[in-house]
Amino acid sequence: MSVHQSSNIKRITTHILQEMKLRGEKISMLTAYDFSMAGIIDAAGIDIILVGDSASNVMAGYETTLPITLDQMIYHATSVVRAVKRAFVVVDIPFGSYQGNSSEALRSAIRIMKESGAHAIKVEGGAEIKESVTRILSAGVPVMGHLGLTPQSIYKFGTYTVRAREEAEAKKLLEDAKLLEECGCFAIVLEKIPASLAKLVAESVQIPVIGIGAGPDVDGQVLVVHDMLGITQEFKPRFLRQYADLRSIMTKAVQDYIDDVKAKDFPKDSESY
After folding, report:
1. Is 227 within the bounds of a domain?
2. Which residues take part in binding Mg(2+) (predicted)?
3. 25, 166, 182, 191: which one is catalytic?
4. Which end of the chain has the smaller Cβ count within 10 Å, N or C?
């Protein structure tokens, strides 16, 4: 594990994340959706685990994040929380569970916190979801914002291309970031926006800003763990650095197992009772 200043912390909290920003220590964040993967990531020393609605893609095989339900997100979150001893666990509230009704947003957030034991929730959007964010925060639930490319709005945007290149959208994104901070969000994720804009946002708010495809000048980085480990091979955006090729390793292991079974080489006497 890399040596860093927070390595001896027993449990990451929103307060510790704020301190990390203040002293310039970068925040590391990865997704996880199950007990086994979460345990590996947590033991490695990750700061934040995001139980992302990207589970809809990598775990269930859907084209978008929209189909995953609140019950399914709670299931994934509960599995992750059982494995985690140190990391701060954030859970996406899925599409349709908070956007149109602040009362429903509050109920969704409370269900996630009570039933999974997670530490915070994440929502996509700015001014248009202010009422929902405020209501969730009023109940004492920590909220992480998400601006830029917001996958739950994919049919509105019609594309996964970089957001906020134009001046008007960039201005709104900066205003939304400041609004989320004013509402009381403890952090913001910026997805797939120009690095210069991400740097400006990180310098303009006091809360941690975590990027995915948002350049190096933010307070931390997040990736989908299946992409980073090379388990998924089809998705290779510019911002993704693949740290392993587990798909090839796993494929060979399965093929070796098949060969051994077919050749009657497994199990041997030493592997029998």
Report:
1. yes
2. 53, 92, 124
3. 191
4. C
How far is Cα 192 from Cα 237, in angstroms, rounded to an integer?
A: 10
Is position 210 within any domain? yes
Contact 172, 147 (CB under 8 A): no
Domain with 160 in it: 14-244
Ramachandran angles phi, psi of 166, nearest 5°:
-80, 150
State the Cα–Cα distance between residues 44 and 27, nearest whole angstrom.
Answer: 14
Residue 1 lies in a domain: no
Q: CA-to-CA distance for 97 and 256, rounded, in angstroms?
A: 45
In a domain, 263, yes or no: no
Name the band, by pLDDT with cuts 50, 70 and 90, for residue 2.
Answer: very low
Domain count across the chain:
1
| Rounded-to-integer distance, Cα 113 and Cα 64, Å | 24
User: Per the annotation, does 122 bind a ligand?
Assistant: yes
Whether 169 is catalytic is: no
Mean pLDDT for 257-262 is 98
Exposure class string for 28-56: b at 16+ Cβ within 10 A, else e: bbbbbbbbebbbebbeebbbbbbbbbbbb
Q: How far is CA 202 from CA 79, 102, 162, 178, 213, in A?
A: 32, 28, 18, 10, 14
Residue 25's CATH number: 3.20.20.60
C-alpha 17/C-alpha 210 separation (Å) is: 11
pLDDT at 229 over 50: yes
| Annotated binding residue 92 | yes
